[in-house]
């Protein structure tokens, strides 16, 4: 994305405005709403199916945790907000409004900041998306997952294709150009041909952003048990690889630019919030089980921390009420740990990691010094999967599909680099 580019009111920060490592005063905010109506067969996210929800206490606690974490951090400016879950479209619109008011009261929330809400197609076919827009939401991410009745049943979704289309239409009317759809492939019973037909159907109804997820079999889920018992079988790896390959081509032909492993946008309708993660910029996470990455005040502007909030909503609420926040785990990221995140996240982007971006996290050693001499990295380059040149480090079109195999090689090289002693003249003793 070009510096300073404006995409339909979505602010994309240029490198002049913000260092690639992110200013410690600026961060994005993730808000986790942990409740769902029903457990989908494949999902192991942090979600709960409650008998009732105490909306008032949840709202107060989210507001309190935002206040506390903003105070504990150096963050004075929030660049984007993402309400994820769980099913945040089940939250009351007053909760969303209250959260955004808290942000504005304790930090600067840019007028055009992207504010996304994940939306589940409503089983009743009716949602209150208009009220969410009044509360400050300006982008929707709709969990369509599939437009095939049978697939939706396998996934254990509580909506049918018609309800998904209705919700999508409502979202598009309210936020034209700012609606994303989540679609899954690799679903039991799906073939490459049926997936291609389904994707064509998605393309007829979708807006300018598509997220494609390969269904992964997660331990502890109902689907995992079904597969283990031999009642259901997952498509073979070569089939899912073909599905991904053909989806990339179909989306490209429809004018979508792939900017990340799973994300495609046309008219530059990229998600600035998610770009922040992939560019390893700081973020604050509030709500049960939320993750965050920011520099706490006490550590004096140097060390970034990885934070995880308490998972279970009732415990989370109690801890927030007692301590102002419910951070369960805090890990100070080492220089190596930070660079691992820069690699793992940055290589998901088609733009990869520029030298300037890397230098913002590693001013002393550049990408060539860390990876250039490695025989394994050179092999990946010769095979056409990886590119390390004057621009920086990135995957080729083929390489992006093999990222899970490429990353361990790079992380091992990084580890070798950090564990190799440095000689008196500053060189690594290889
Ligand atoms: C956890 S959901 C939350 C949003 C919303 N509740 C929904 O279901 O649409 C976020 C996205 O993660 C993806 N996801 C969740 N579990 C997955 C799995 N096992 N494999 C692949 N994608 C998954 C789904 O596509 C979903 O849209
Ligand atoms: S996929 Fe979404 S709706 Fe289904 S259980 Fe997971 S978080 Fe809830």
UniProtKB/TrEMBL annotation:
SUPFAM superfamilies: Radical SAM enzymes. It comes from the Eukaryota. Residues 21-257 form the Radical SAM core domain. Its main location: mitochondrion. GO terms for biological process: porphyrin-containing compound biosynthetic process. It is found in: Mitochondrion. Transmembrane segments: none annotated. Belongs to the anaerobic coproporphyrinogen-III oxidase family. HemW subfamily. May be a heme chaperone, appears to bind heme. Homologous bacterial proteins do not have oxygen-independent coproporphyrinogen-III oxidase activity. Binds 1 [4Fe-4S] cluster. The cluster is coordinated with 3 cysteines and an exchangeable S-adenosyl-L-methionine. This is Radical S-adenosyl methionine domain-containing protein.
